[in-house]
Amino acid sequence: MTIGRQQELAEFNRLYNSGNAEFVAVYGRRRVGKTYLINEALAGKITFHHAGLSPVEGTKQNGMKQQLQQFYYSLLMQGMPKSHCPKSWLEAFYMLEKHLQAIDDGSRQVVFLDELPWMDTPRSGFVTALEGFWNGWASARHNLMLVVCGSSSSWILNNLINNHGGLYGRVTREIYLRPFTLAECEAFYTDKHIPFSRYDIVQSYMILGGIPYYMGYMEQNKSFAQNIDNLLFRDKAPLSDEYERLFRSIFVKPDATKRIIEVLATRHKGYTRTEISQKTGIPTSGDFSKLLQALVSSNFAEEYVPFGCSKRDVHYKLIDPFCWFYLRFVRNRTAYTEQFWQQHSEDASIVSWRGFAFELVCMNHIQAIKQALGIQGISTTQSAWTTSGDEQKEGTQIDMLIERKDNVVNMCEMKFYSDEFTVDKAYHLTL
Questions:
Q1: Please, are residues 86 and 95 in contact by the beta-carbon 8 Å criterion?
Q2: What are the domain boundaries of the chain?
């Protein structure tokens, strides 16, 4: 059973039956389910499938050689007569063209290239060869459908969707795959017969961010707290190294990108570009803008202007729940017992974290909140707002300000409780 993704499944069905050459780019965060979606949507219809090799396993010296060899093996495994390993990507795509021509019976041919950014090793000429494959051959074949995907959203955006060279305007459909919503998380756990309460489902989102792969580790015979210990705190926990893998597999400069993320994790509202540069020691010249943009396009960080500030006062803040949780509680896990979450889930520091984490859940579900308020058709921007106190007055915080184009501002207060929260007279006066 496929949870959610109905719009994406319908779109794949439409594209498959369009009768035209289609170039489809699917992108989204690592582990969000891109490959699973494509395999489900095109089950039994894929003519050629190849997945790039992870750069974590290769080296800069032999990356291209390994990628080409693996591509050749994919051709052999899927019916191409034995030949020789291509020496360049131009030759590799030529071999793919010949193979597809040889087996063409007039029906739809689907080519699925998974983890495309991994194939583009330094100085490999991969993008040029892909351009030649599409512009010089594939785009003229009405029965061909090219589907590509990758976890490096910045690569997909820069090299395909926003390409200013030979691939400009060639992608016929882009599909950005988002993490599950809370409703989809609930449907996922119900389908897996995992009896979590809604309180636990929200906490699951606070920690795992609605990422299906992470959620798949949950076991029905364990409590929520036991599951979190099993996933993140026990020895050799399955997600204990996921933070490092995320950056190694997605970003060109993982260490510099991590430095930025770890600075953003020190303040909920984030920092300006200048502040980030000062705190990380990364100069604002050179690749700094690319590093920030890669984090934004991959949905790890958000670029926003705080309420009441000018457009020059752009801030960047961390919005990935898994990274927030990892940096707050998991990174120093050697100091904890393997039952850390079971033993400490009601500690003051964790109760405080839940309050902020719930605000992030709400920010990530802004469309659902707007729909509940009846303003889904109005363009808005969202941010929190705080003022510092002094001897004359207390500080003020508004969890979410929804600034609307119709000159109205909605003020929202977020509270995360295990029981129903009642607004009494005293709290009403506080508001």
A1: yes
A2: 6-176, 180-367
Q: Please list the residues that pair with 385 across neighbouring strands.
A: 398
The region, left, alpha or beta by phi > 0 then psi within -120 to 50, assigned to residue 295 is alpha
Q: How many residues does the structure list for the chain?
A: 431
Contact assessment for residue 286 and residue 351, using Cβ atoms and an 8 Å cutoff: no
| CA–CA dist 75, 85 (Å, integer) | 10
pLDDT higher than threshold 80 for residue 336: no
Q: Helix axis angle, 242-250 relative to 254-264, nearest 10°?
A: 130
Q: 95 is written with which tokens? A: 């071999």
CATH topology for the 6-176 domain? Rossmann fold (3.40.50)
**Could you tell me which of 301, 289, 290 has the C-alpha nearest to residue 261?**
301
Report the distance separating Cα 318 and Cα 90, nearest Å. Answer: 40
Cα–Cα distances (Å) from 286 to 40, 157, 283, 290, in that order, read: 42, 20, 7, 8
Cα distance between residue 151 and residue 254, in whole Å: 14
pLDDT, one tens digit per residue, over 255-293 is 999 999 999 999 998 999 999 999 999 999 878 999 999
**Cα 110 from Cα 146, distance rounded (Å):** 6
Label residue 187 exposed, middle or buried (CB < 10 Å: 0-12, 13-18, 19+). middle
Structure confidence by residue, pLDDT tens digits, 203-236: 999 999 999 999 999 999 999 999 999 999 998 8
- For the chain, the straight-line distance linking the first and the last C-alpha, in angstroms and rounded, comes to 45
The residue among 175, 238, 234, 235 whose CA lies nearest residue 208 is: 238
Whole-structure pTM value: 0.90
